[in-house]
Amino acid sequence: MYARRQFVATRARAFAMYASRTVCSRCASSVRAAVPPTYRSAPGAGSGSVAWFSSTASAASQQASSSSSTPHSFRQTSEGTISKTGNPQPRQPPFSQKAGASSKRQPRRNKDASAAVALFNDVVQKSEVAAPREFPTRPTSRQSSASTVFGEWEIAAKMKELEEKDVEPLERLRLFQNDIWPHVKELRGQIPKHLYLATTMFLARTFDTVAQQGLTGASVALSKMCATIGKWDLDMRNQLVLNLCHTLISKKHTSAERNALVDELLDMWKHISQLRRMSQLHNGRLCFVLPSEDEIIEDISSSSTSLTKQTEPGEVKSSNMAPTTKALASIFIQFRFEQARELVSGLLATLAILSDPRLARDGSQIKAAPLLNLVSIVLDHQPADTAYVNDIFAGKIRFPSSKLADLQSYVLAQWPQARDMVMRHDSEWRKSTTSSHKPSRSSSESSCLSAFHKQLRAAYRSRNTGAIVSIWQDLNATLVQDQDLRRQMSEDPDFLDFWIFVWCAVRRPKKLQETLDLMREVGIQPTVRSYTSMMHGWKMCKDADRIEALWNKLVESGLRLDAVIWTERISGLIEAGKPQSGIQALAEMQALWKKAVASRGSVESAANVAVQPSTEVVNAAFKGLIGLDRRAANEVLYWAGREGIEPNIRTYNILLRESLRNSAPEDVQSLLKAMKKRGVEPDAATFTIILEGLLGSMENASAAEQVHVVSQILGDIEAAGLRANHETYGKMLYAVASLANGGADEAIAAVQDHMKAAGLSATPHMVTILIERALSRDPLPADAGATVRALLKEHGLSNVAQGDQTLWERVMSAHAVTGDRASAMAVFDDLARAGRPVTSLPCLTDLLKALLASEDAQAAQDARQVVGVVLNHKKAAAEGSFGRDTRYWRHHFWYLARENGLIDWQEVPALLESKLRG
């Protein structure tokens, strides 16, 4: 059988070698039939054939382990192996047992890495043997030439069929990218001339169509496809750049659409800067890769010297290129001047776009800082006036003439602002290029990392994976521009540990690998905390296999593990659907501890080699089990008691929450009594759980029912021998006030009466809750203003020296909403004189709306005063840096101020003006 297969394969290769380029469909079919099943992965292959790939998983493992022994099908894409029907075949999940078993076949990426980094590589990268690489390699020599010949003509036929389809250009491109391009890409380096011509003609026509119809969203993808097959024409890339610029100036867009277009424009420049650079061949991330300032200056000096020599008597100019054009072309140093000059018109148009506050914000300038920095050096040595710009656009440019005329007019009109943006020394974008040279971090610099951290947390909380990826891209772009950020990262390893957690939680192993690479770049060693973050992320996405694979690697490494990672492992297994494994892990932990104590002779010595199970570990197991199997959860508690592990407040909080969830409020009192008996003090979470559990289900309850529940809660607390404090009553007031229409007055009164009986007075926080409740009624009562004043009087609050800032900002807002503008302005002025002006933009918006609603001249003057005070306070607090506070300046308060002419522009710094003008 083996000999016959070899004979058939040899015959097929010979047939392919001598086949004519005009193979007919019948011959192609014969060739296809001659290729044995071993070299084909057609679905439904007969069982009689000897199959190398018995399953998708084993196929992936064999392919990853040895490319020389496994033929590489041209159907493979970056997402996995594609069948002949075009459907992706499922890949083996990373970190499975098979992957772990074969991971030893994979060579280490960095033999000099420390043990910790090597371990991290093992876990993140090498365990995923089953996952195919992002970029398929070329067909190996063992692959049948016959299948390659068939592929060429099949591709050509599909391309012709696609050209004849009556579909929209972007849809045609999508079909090409999905159905044809993967096969063309696999043939790169061996692509036949006829197929190369067909592909380049298709792409060139697509470029022209994109420019003619003003299509967007595919610029970088188009350019990348051309680069893959070795087509480097810069006039085509410039065409895409000009198209984006023209689309921005010729059509109306929403703010989000404008931002997306500007980002696509900047991505094009990043991509262009990476073209023809070997260092970027396998870099899938877009970033600016540009020459240094010294290289640019040297090129400019050399060009000037060359030009001087050429103009001496007897010399002939070798180039009619303008010095400014040559200097700008030198930015793209990997291309010859004659090639790079094609990009100058697009570069000038981009500068005009970035300088126009109607189209681009300061953040876009900051993203383009590496490019703008080099342009500023060029224009400093070789100025560019409007006459030069006009000459550039009057030249031969590959772009529709009517659209080019529009762009020319726009760039000429905008050029003074563009030149000012580039040359001004206080431009916003310059800060990102100079931060690493400052002697100390300013408040804005020190908050750079925390700003990214805050954005990431918000994106993860909303489970917005697209936003998470976008933040990661922004972070990497900022790293290129701001070297000081690397230092900040190296001093704050928790930041990258959180990224590790997020990538695991959202199932992005490639991004996890990028984070590992970044950790190495900034000099951070992965720690047990890093691995705990990984495990926590996999717990969130319920990936028990990865949790176990990671744990096995950690144990094999001999790394000392702590109670936190043990806890994460146990709870992760339970919550990921393997409760028995979680319980076994808990038992294993206890067994190892007992063994260590027995062998070492003391608890202190045992702690050096093992971890003692704690109440927190038991709580983690108990919390995961109680929702799955209450009996098993209780058995864990009994077991813990026998082992001398006592419950703590978190144990009781878990029990309280579960009792209320199961509609068993009668258990609350007994649990509280048990806490009292064991001397376990309740915490804030205890009362929150009780309040949310009992009051949260009373949305449509009557006043009497609300009062009854309030009394029941307070009675249970007292019966347990516990004492409610200010925080307890505050939470209770908030819970009642959060009910429909502010809750029943009787229930609010019941809470207050009980509090007074306990000898406690209302706090400013409680008064704030009551004021907001008075304003939450729908419709707003006519006496709401009187209610607010009565509340202040009742609690002895007569001036801003009493209470806190939040209270008085809400009081100001309440006066404004209820029509008492004089009282609202009085509070505003008092706070400003006290050196703590109002900062809450929602409250300020209420005040500004009330003032603008009046036709009184004094009200208009007050409105201008409010805006001035807020602006001056914010300017002082920002210390001249407004780059990372974009959302603040987009608030409706500033829109009202701008639209009603309340901003004194002479007092507004130039850096801030573009933000305020929107």
UniProtKB/TrEMBL annotation:
Residues 63-113, 301-320, 426-446 are annotated as: Disordered. PPR repeats lie at residues 648-682. The keyword Glycosyltransferase does not apply. It comes from the Eukaryota. InterPro entries: PPR_rpt (IPR002885), TPR-like_helical_dom_sf (IPR011990). Residues 432-446 have a biased composition (Low complexity). Keywords: Repeat. Residues 71-89, 305-320 have a biased composition (Polar residues). Transmembrane segments: none annotated. The keyword Repeat applies. Regulates mitochondrial small subunit maturation by controlling 15S rRNA 5'-end processing. Localizes to the 5' precursor of the 15S rRNA in a position that is subsequently occupied by mS47 in the mature yeast mtSSU. Uses structure and sequence-specific RNA recognition, binding to a single-stranded region of the precursor and specifically recognizing bases -6 to -1. The exchange of Ccm1 for mS47 is coupled to the irreversible removal of precursor rRNA that is accompanied by conformational changes of the mitoribosomal proteins uS5m and mS26. Belongs to the CCM1 family. Binds to mitochondrial small subunit 15S rRNA. This is Pentatricopeptide repeat protein.
